[in-house]
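Narrative of accomplishments. A recurring question from our advisory board has been how the design workflow behaves on a single, concrete structure rather than in aggregate. To address it, we present the structure tokens for one chain from the evaluation set, followed by the sequence designed for it. No filtering or post-editing was applied between the two.
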């Protein structure tokens, strides 16, 4: 677990301390310095988001509205052999990090240290570092993170209050970053996490910002040091969530990467593409190199 230097001041629309006071978290959020919890990164750290494979169980055809159907089918289909096959394909595309999707390491299946140890062994044998857990924050998700040595959960907070979420993360010493989906402003992103604190931060999803017609670079700058993970994604047009190759949609992910570099972001760039009509592995290497080039520039 790495602590980020606290020399940079967040440029949110509201001062972060004022924000947490306004929404009632009080001293809990104001008393601690934001911390980045990442697993160690190379010069251009690009990870593969396991949720890219949401359509794998249906021959890479699905509809976004049926996400949970795919999720549940993936849980049933993911035994040790399938997990190894997935990890081998990701490694073959040149990725060194993987964001483990909840459906591939579900509390429904990884219910013992023994089975979790097998998943961890496969990660090690395929040379993949588990850099994040894509799912909903909760005790079971944090337990899996502990077993697999994953530094943070990235996704939804469920019905947890910022206070409860903070205490839960502190208990496990594992962070949580809220992933923006419907939110269109910095204030909307920060509200469920009480303005953020040492344990609660932000996972910027560039694709969903594009879907909402929100200004990605501006929101990244406003969230500042609270950005502790990111999903780099592009979409065809605002108002929808049809994913496309990076740089071919409306998001301008290159400008988002530049903004992340501008705030001093040092974490992993998790490439995310959940197409409804194609195999994302066909473009995985292309998109990994696309991100790496812009992070290094």
């Amino acid at each position: 677990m790495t602590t980020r230097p606290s020399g940079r001041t967040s440029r949110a629309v509201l001062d972060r301390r004022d924000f947490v006071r306004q929404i009632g978290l009080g001293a809990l959020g104001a008393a601690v310095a934001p911390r980045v919890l990442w697993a160690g990164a190379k010069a251009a750290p690009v990870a593969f988001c396991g949720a890219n494979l949401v359509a794998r169980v249906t021959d890479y055809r699905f509809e976004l509205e049926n996400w949970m159907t795919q999720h549940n089918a993936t849980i049933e289909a993911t035994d040790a052999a399938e997990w190894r096959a997935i990890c081998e394909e990701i490694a073959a595309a040149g990725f060194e990090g993987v964001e483990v999707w909840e459906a591939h390491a579900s509390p429904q299946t990884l219910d013992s240290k023994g089975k979790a140890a097998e998943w961890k062994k496969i990660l090690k044998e395929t040379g993949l570092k588990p850099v994040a857990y894509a799912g909903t924050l909760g005790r079971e998700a944090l337990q899996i993170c502990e077993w697999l040595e994953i530094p943070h959960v990235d996704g939804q907070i469920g019905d947890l209050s910022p206070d409860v979420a903070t205490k839960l993360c502190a208990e496990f010493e594992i962070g949580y970053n809220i992933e923006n989906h419907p939110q269109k402003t910095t204030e909307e992103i920060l509200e469920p996490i009480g303005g953020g604190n040492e344990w609660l931060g932000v996972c910027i999803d560039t694709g969903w910002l594009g879907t909402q017609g929100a200004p990605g670079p501006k929101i990244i700058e406003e969230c500042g040091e609270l950005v502790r993970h990111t999903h780099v994604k592009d979409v065809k047009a605002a108002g929808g969530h049809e994913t496309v190759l990076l740089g071919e949609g409306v998001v301008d992910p290159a400008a988002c990467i530049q903004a992340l570099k501008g705030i001093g972001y040092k974490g992993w760039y998790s490439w995310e593409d959940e197409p409804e009509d194609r195999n994302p592995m066909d473009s995985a290497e292309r998109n990994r190199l696309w991100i790496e080039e812009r992070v290094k520039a």
